[in-house]
Amino acid sequence: MFRSVINNVTSSVKNTSQSVRTSLIKFKKSLQPSYTVHAITYFVLPGIPVNKNISQHHFERGEYREAKAFYEKVIRNTETMGFSPAEIHLIKGRKKIIARQLFGPVEQLEGLPMTINS
């Protein structure tokens, strides 16, 4: 009888500690920022406004490693396919750009008239 009581108490403590651990992990994750990768390509044709295409890929809170890996993959694919001009951003939260890669004369396009497709 005494042994069964000890086993029940031990299993209750294990379940409670697992529940607390899960709650702490969820709480910690809720405090971390989300991440987004923007891939921006520009299509330039003489006499027509520049066409700016923005592709976004969103990541959940705390998924920095996944976002960084995806950001690097997009850079490799952009280099391989030869998209130019283009720019790739890794964004923390809603607006803080933590990494930026430019391909081609992106700065020169800023003053030109544009149509934006997102």
Description of the molecule:
With 118 residues, the chain is α+β, with helices and mostly antiparallel strands. The chain has two domains: 31 residues; 85 residues, no CATH class. A five-stranded mixed β-sheet has the order 4-3-1-2-5, with helices on one face. A hairpin with a 3-residue loop joins strand 3 and strand 4. The protein is rod-shaped. The relative contact order is 0.17.
List the helices and strands and how they pair.
Elements: H1 2-31, E1 35-43, E2 50-59, H2 64-81, E3 86-92, E4 96-103, H3 106-109, E5 114-117
Parallel strand pairs: 2-5
Antiparallel strand pairs: 1-2, 1-3, 3-4
Beta-strand content bin: 25-35%
- Cα-based radius of gyration, to the nearest Å: 24 Å
Helix-strand pattern: HEEHEEHE
**Helix/strand/pairing class, anyone?**
alpha+beta
Report the average pLDDT across residues.
84
* Spans where pLDDT lies below 50 across 5 or more residues: none
Number of strands: 5
Shape: rod-shaped
Binned, the helix content reads: 40-55%
The domain tally reads 2
Q: Number of helical segments?
A: 3
Profile the largest sheet: 5 strands, mixed
Termini separation: 68 Å
Please state how the strands of the largest beta sheet are arranged side by side.
4-3-1-2-5
